[in-house]
User: What shape does this take?
Amino acid sequence: MNQDLSILQLVMHASFVVQLVMLLLLIISVASWAAIFRKLFALKKVKSLNESFERDFWSGSSLNDLFAAATQNARTAGPMERIFASGMREAQKLRERRITDPATLMDGARRAMRASFQREMDVIETHLSFLASVGSVSPYVGLFGTVWGIMHAFTGLAALTQ
Assistant: This one.
């Protein structure tokens, strides 16, 4: 009974169902790591864009200049800058409609910024549901493969003792 117990030999001698489960777990693992690294790089980019806008915002520039820059750089702007731009856009629309009540202006801008914030959060949170599903389902898939393998091992042992 001199068998090679290397990982490759164990995988090659496993049943088809166990090999399929291991392949499925490997594919999902690679997809998960890809999603994790994409999310990591995206969050770093968001953080740097937000920090850049925040520096500009607190530097003392006028809000109109910041709004003009935000609308000009709409494609490359960060989430915080887009939220600011939506609030300013709404405030300007209300001013054009001759609404001068500061509370109404603030409520309109706040509503627009909340909606923009939610859109930005939806973009940032993409693929998190995939990672959550993988994290909760993978242990059970692995357990299924383990149970299947043990079941076949006991079946093989039973065949040897007869």
